[in-house]
Prior knowledge:
By secondary structure, the chain is mostly helical. It has helices at 2-25, 32-55.
Amino acid sequence: MIEQILVFLFLMVIGSIFLIFRALVFRELHKKNTYVFIIIYNIFMLIVLLKVLLNF
C-alpha cells in the first residue's frame, strides 16, 4: 500500500524532472505551456493515485 504511494510519487517527480529537462533542451522553459503541461501531468498522476487508493 505505502510502497505503491511511494512509487507513484517517485513517478511524478521523475516525470516532472524529465519534462523540465526536455523544456531546457528545447529552450521552452520561458513558455507558459511548459508549466501547464507539467501541472496537467502531475494532476493526472494524482488522479491515478486516488483511483488506486480507492480500490483498496
